[in-house]
Model the fold of this input.
Amino acid sequence: MEHIAELGGIVTGFNVTEHRIDCMSGKNLIKFDKCSRNVICQKTVFEKEGLSRKLTADHEQIFIYDFCTLYAIDQNNYELIGKWQLGDDLSSDICGITVDRDTIYCSIRNGKMITVDRQSYQVKEFTVSESSMWSIKIYDPYLVCGTVEGKLLLLDKATLSIEKELVLGKKNIGSLYIDGETLYAAGHDGKLFKIRLGNFEIESCVKNVHKKMFVCAGIYKDMLITVSYPCSEIAFWNKETLEKKKVIHTPLKLSGCTHIEDEYMYISSRNILGIDRIKLSE
Done:
């Protein structure tokens, strides 16, 4: 484990580009150079400290949701592009987010989806499910969503109507990762699923992946990487057979974020003041 960014606080979300890393910590967004590790941009964006904010990004903009508020921010200079209040209380807060070239998609508690057009900023609301959706991925021309009641939904992006659904269990499908035509899904019941997106059917399933909640972090060579922050475990699985290959034990806490690039995994967690980096080949 290598400490690559000492930011004096917990990083609750980050985005890795070719040369830089954008970090969300406390009230601030902080950009640092990957090679020199010098801070090159820092801006106070939020009025209060917060640990529950989530961040995603594309090559131009950063998107952050905080309770019921959605932010769109210029990735280069951290200027605020737009800010929207999408809900009012715990019955209407934002649960998940994903973006494509034209639209920001936000899942709202209790099964709604709100879209924001990235050109006109028009906001639309759709009722999708009876259950909250905490994990959303794009599989053009669809969205794939995991629900709290254990279902996997395939939604038409144009209408946000359900095209297909798959029952994976009875507990939250809290993490999804798409690799080509394959979807990996992590359930809060400790199960890991491999799903073929073409026919939307389960290919294989492994039980007791970690003793506590885990996420699908990404692909390294021919392996899927899962991370359980509560268990302080990083596990490697053959991405075809879901056979466990090895486990790395490293101190982590409660929750965090990851990004896999070449031989490395960038990782933040509640016990790390900044960002660490792990060489996956070791």
Q: What stands out?
A: The CA atoms of residues 78 and 181 lie 34 Å apart. The chain has no helices and 28 strands. The chain has a mean pLDDT of 96. The radius of gyration is 18 Å.
